[in-house]
């Protein structure tokens, strides 16, 4: 008897039965673009083995004009079919099922040949699309159908038609992007002809026993988006046209409301899918910020959908479904929705992986094989780097002792979890605790290890992951009682005044501002508050679902100024897909940002600053508290002691390199080192 009865209820589609209600949603990993077909196959095979009911590939264009980038994955010729066969074969060999997503970018295409309903440039591509004529529209529909037929030939179990997120099909649906006056524009019946024709044509071409998922944008989150009555009308027409399943799309890519970031409440949009339940008789899939089996089970039990889509959680843990089935939900490596190694990489044209699972997309190259020579290994420091090194080493069969001078494991993760919007870090630290237990790592808390002690204990390998210490900004007067470090604020919860200057605008400066600008409950754990903060309304009231009042954040309990010496934009080094959210969030709280600053002095009056090399406009910021977030330096004293004694050691994480350190690099480095010990 499983703890998650709704997840493990099979789903009968008539011609095939899915074993459970979990879909691995489409993700673009970059493996496909590198033509690494065997790696793509290994990536999907591992996830099929993990028990997921159905998987969807990253987007594949039906023709050149629909490709996101020149040369991006497309399937329009029989030669291209061969590229897909290793994947479908490997997935089927594992007993899995896989559908290929057909993604036409329309005006989001990052090249000159993009096409759309009207020649209106999108805010996220520098290229205006070419307006299609009737024949051009007919060609696109035929190309979708051809692509689906080729997908079937390649061995896929179905296709997903990407009709949401502001891509080509979405661009025809709404007046925001469709200004046509012919039969493909104007009335809603005309605007929805394109998706309906595409589904009809695909069904006719592929036959009855092939899965067609249609991803339908249920809340566009852009001005003049679809109204709820249109969403219902479209869903009914898509069902009648022959779709097997409707999946939920949330928000266009150009929307200024976060939809999958870690600060978005879990299952923030399942209410939208729930509203469509009962309007159609084919299964509905819901999506976005669902990352644990319990949340998925609750969503299904509450009748929000027939199936749940999760994407990033399958980068974090390929075995998500099997672990849930076997009563091992607490062993699932949690996706913390950080985007740092997946979506941020995609936007930088780098291969995706996962912050908490560096093996993701590296299945053929990074493996934790059992050791034939079990060693006695000391790991000093239980932050992300040390934890991952200790766990991978123990998993491989080594005897690991983990020293931590604090009274708890987690290092900087324990500070991150205090920040409103970063609650997922709690689950990550809990996961590590459980893993240390399961893998039999000896954990010595409140124990800083000395070089002599390590030598006495005769370890075969010593791993130094002692992390970082705050950088001293050397500001005259910084010993004043009104000066705190970020550790004082986030960890030790020292009292902070109502007027604050935050020195430093890196990740931690932003975290400290977020922490100080909130009062009471975090919007991330209170959906109504979060919707109010970002201005998420109801598509039945406002087309697109933006609230008529706009964003209405709770005011900050403090007046905060964040400063940096650089002249460029604050938070320029934050994640590509999340930096804008952090900046918008602080702007909504009226946090003042000053750049090009010199820190002259601190005294009872506050912080004395000037601007630029000429030290112009000197002035006092009369603040009650000054928080130092001036970056960090490596804490590698122990490594130096060992070096002096001639004892070999491996230095990783912040102790190795503090600049630009984040948990992604720390975990990757720790895991890769331990894979070789
Ligand atoms: P950081 O990103 O290196 O930022 C340090 C800040 O301190 C910069 O704004 C820098 O700006 C300032 N600074 C540097 N030297 C200074 C000096 N001598 N005097 C005064 N100011 C100085 O470091 P961090 O904020 O401590 O973050 C550490 C790492 O954790 C980062 O890599 C970050 O990416 C990661 N992190 C990420 C997140 C996230 O949201 N993804 C959150 C927290 C932490 P100026 O030089 O212009 O003054
Ligand atoms: Fe999730 Fe972050 Fe991993 Fe992406 S990088 S899958 S968001 S944990």
Keywords:
31% helix, binds NADP nicotinamide-adenine-dinucleotide phosphate, TIM Barrel, globular, FAD/NAD(P)-binding domain, alpha/beta, five-stranded parallel beta sheet, eight-stranded parallel β-barrel, Rossmann fold
Tell me which CATH architecture of the largest domain applies here: Alpha-Beta Barrel
CATH homologous superfamily designation of the largest domain: Aldolase class I
**Overall 3D form:** globular
How many domains make up the coordinates? 3
Chemical compounds bound to the protein = NADP nicotinamide-adenine-dinucleotide phosphate, iron/sulfur cluster
Uncertain segments are none
**Total number of beta strands:** 27
* Helix percentage range: 25-40%
CATH topology of the largest domain: TIM Barrel
Which class do the helix and strand fractions yield?
Answer: alpha/beta
Please give the oligomerization state of what you see. Answer: single chain
Rg, rounded, reads: 27 Å
The percentage of residues in β strands lies in: 15-25%
Report the mean per-residue pLDDT as an integer.
96
Q: With helices defined by DSSP (H or I, 4 residues minimum), what is the helix count?
A: 22
Q: What does the largest sheet look like?
A: 8 strands, parallel, barrel
Under the CATH scheme, which class of the largest domain?
Answer: Alpha Beta
Separation of the first and last Cα atoms: 40 Å
**Strand arrangement, major sheet:** 3-4-5-8-9-10-11-12
């Amino acid at each position: 008897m499983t703890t998650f009865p709704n997840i493990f209820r099979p789903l009968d589609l008539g011609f095939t039965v899915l074993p459970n209600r979990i879909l691995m949603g489409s993700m673009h990993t970059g493996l496909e673009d590198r033509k690494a077909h065997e790696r793509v196959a290994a990536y999907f095979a591992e996830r099929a083995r993990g028990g997921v009911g159905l998987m969807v590939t990253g987007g594949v264009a039906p023709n050149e004009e629909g490709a996101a980038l020149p040369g991006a994955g497309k399937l329009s010729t029989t030669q291209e079919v061969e590229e897909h066969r290793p994947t479908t074969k490997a997935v089927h060999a594992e007993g899995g099922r896989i559908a290929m997503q057909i993604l036409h970018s329309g005006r989001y295409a990052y090249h000159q040949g993009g096409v759309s309903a009207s020649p209106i440039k999108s805010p996220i591509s520098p290229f205006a699309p070419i307006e299609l004529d009737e024949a051009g529209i007919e060609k696109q529909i035929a190309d979708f159908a051809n692509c689906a037929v080729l997908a079937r030939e390649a061995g896929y179990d179905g296709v997903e038609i990407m009709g949401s997120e502001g891509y080509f099909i979405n661009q025809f649906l709404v007046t925001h992007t469709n200004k046509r006056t012919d039969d493909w524009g104007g009335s809603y019946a005309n605007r929805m002809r394109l998706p309906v024709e595409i589904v009809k044509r695909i069904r006719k071409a592929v036959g009855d026993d092939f899965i067609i998922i249609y991803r339908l944008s249920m809340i566009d989150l852009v001005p003049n988006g679809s109204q709820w009555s249109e969403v219902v009308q479209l869903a009914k027409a898509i069902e009648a046209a022959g779709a097997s399943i409707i999946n939920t799309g949330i928000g266009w890519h150009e929307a200024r409301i976060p939809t999958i970031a870690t600060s978005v409440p879990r299952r923030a949009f399942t209410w939208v899918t729930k509203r469509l339940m009962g309007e159609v008789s084919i299964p509905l899939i819901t999506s976005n910020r669902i990352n644990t089996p319990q949340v998925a089970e609750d969503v299904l039990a509450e009748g929000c959908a027939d199936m749940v889509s999760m994407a990033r959680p399958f980068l974090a843990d390929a075995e998500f479904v099997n672990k849930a089935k076997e009563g091992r939900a607490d062993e699932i490596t949690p996706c913390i929705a950080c985007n740092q190694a997946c979506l941020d990489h995609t936007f930088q044209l780098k291969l995706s992986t996962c912050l908490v699972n560096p093996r993701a997309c590296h299945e053929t190259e990074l493996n934790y094989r059992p050791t034939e020579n079990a060693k006695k290994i000391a790991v000093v420091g239980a932050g992300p780097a040390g934890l991952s090194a200790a766990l991978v080493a123990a998993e491989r069969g080594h005897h690991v002792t983990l020293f931590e001078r604090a009274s708890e494991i987690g290092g900087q993760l324990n500070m991150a979890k205090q920040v409103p919007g970063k609650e997922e870090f709690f689950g990550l630290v809990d996961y590590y605790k459980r893993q240390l237990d399961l893998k039999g790592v000896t954990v010595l808390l409140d124990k800083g290890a000395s070089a002599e002690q390590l030598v006495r204990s005769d370890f075969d390998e010593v791993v130094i992951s002692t992390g970082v210490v705050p950088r001293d900004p050397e500001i005259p007067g910084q010993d004043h009682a009104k000066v705190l470090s970020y550790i004082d604020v986030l960890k030790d919860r020292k009292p902070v005044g109502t007027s604050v200057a935050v020195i430093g605008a890196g990740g931690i400066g932003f975290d400290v501002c977020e922490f100080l600008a909130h009062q009471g409950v975090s919007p991330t754990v209170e959906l109504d508050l979060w919707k109010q903060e970002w201005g998420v309304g109801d598509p039945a009231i406002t087309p697109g679902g933006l609230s008529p009042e706009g964003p209405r954040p709770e005011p900050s309990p403090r007046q905060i100024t964040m400063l940096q010496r650089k002249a460029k934009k604050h938070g320029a080094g934050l994640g590509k897909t999340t930096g804008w959210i952090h900046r918008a969030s602080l702007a909504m709280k009226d946090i003042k940002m000053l750049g090009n600053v010199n820190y002259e002095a601190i005294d009872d009056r506050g912080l004395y600053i000037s601007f630029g090399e000429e030290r112009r406009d000197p002035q006092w910021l009369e603040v009650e508290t000054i928080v130092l977030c001036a970056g960090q330096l490596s804490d590698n004293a122990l490594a130096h002691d060992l070096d002096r004694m001639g004892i070999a050691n491996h230095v990783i994480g912040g102790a190795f390199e503090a600049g630009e350190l984040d948990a992604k690099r720390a975990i990757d480095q720790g895991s890769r080192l331990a894979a070789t010990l």
